[in-house]
């Protein structure tokens, strides 16, 4: 297996607003959200409550993690495979504790590298902030305090695609399309996650599948960006 794929863990997270209903937030959080909402782009002129339902989930101070999916490369009989594992749940503290244990017990912390699309701006800091809010000590790979830049083991396919162009944002969906990567998308997209979670009985299951699809897409994109052949779909396995 290519050395660049060793000790590499692809991940994606899905997040929602911390409360289903805005009016159930305590008064301090409502006040602070209203203050934040005043600085958000609001071309539809939505109220603070409407903005909360649509956008609170992307801010770690007002949201929570409901799903984390991982992908790891391995070889089987000379063929490259991807193994996908996901952790989901309504109890965020329990979920994040499982994530921490997975990162610390399944991998060598000194060499583990994490990769996500837009991970440096979203997934990695969001996970870290929510762990701290839940009173969970950060696993070594997420704890960057005191580390030198070259000791931070974060990779980001969006950053790789920018090639130093700081103003360029390219979605994972667009990149998988132009690289002709087979779609792993389900019947929802990121803008629907909050609504699906809070309105559907089996919404979490749909979201988990969607998250797994993004991990597969990111893993295949990572291969393309290193001029490596993508993994045959028959060699992609979802494990429990």
TrEMBL record:
Return the protein name: 3'-5' exonuclease
SUPFAM superfamilies attached here? Ribonuclease H-like
- Top enzyme class: hydrolase
EC number(s) recorded for this UniProt protein: 3.1.-.-
Question: InterPro entries, alphabetically?
Answer: 3'-5'_exonuclease_PolB-like, RNaseH-like_sf, RNaseH_sf
Every Predicted 3'-5' exonuclease PolB-like domain range:
62-227
Q: What is the lineage of its organism?
A: Bacteria, Pseudomonadati, Bacteroidota, Cytophagia, Cytophagales
Which keywords label this protein? Answer: Exonuclease, Hydrolase, Nuclease
- Gene Ontology molecular function: any one: exonuclease activity
């Amino acid at each position: 297996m290519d050395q660049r794929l060793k000790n590499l863990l692809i991940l994606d997270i899905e997040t929602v607003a911390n409360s289903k209903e805005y009016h159930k937030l305590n008064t301090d959080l409502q006040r602070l959200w209203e203050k934040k909402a005043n600085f958000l782009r609001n071309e539809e002129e939505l109220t603070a409550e409407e903005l909360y339902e649509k956008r609170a989930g992307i801010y770690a101070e007002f949201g929570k993690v409901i799903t984390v999916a991982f992908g790891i490369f391995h070889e089987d009989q000379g063929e490259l495979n991807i193994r996908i594992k996901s952790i989901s749940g309504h109890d965020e503290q329990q979920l994040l504790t499982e994530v921490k244990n997975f990162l610390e017990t399944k991998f060598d912390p000194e060499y583990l590298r994490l990769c996500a699309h837009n991970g440096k701006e979203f997934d990695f800091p969001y996970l870290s902030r929510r762990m701290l809010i839940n009173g969970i000590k950060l696993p070594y790979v997420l704890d960057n305090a005191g580390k030198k830049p070259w000791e931070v083991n974060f990779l980001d396919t969006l950053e790789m695609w920018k090639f130093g162009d700081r103003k360029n944002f390219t979605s994972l969906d667009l990149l998988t399309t132009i690289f002709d990567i087979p779609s792993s998308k389900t019947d929802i997209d990121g803008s629907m996650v909050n609504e699906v979670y809070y309105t559907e009985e089996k919404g979490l299951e749909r979201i988990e599948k969607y998250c797994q699809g993004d991990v597969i897409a990111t893993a295949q994109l990572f291969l393309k960006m290193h001029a490596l052949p993508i993994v045959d779909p028959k060699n992609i396995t979802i494990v429990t």
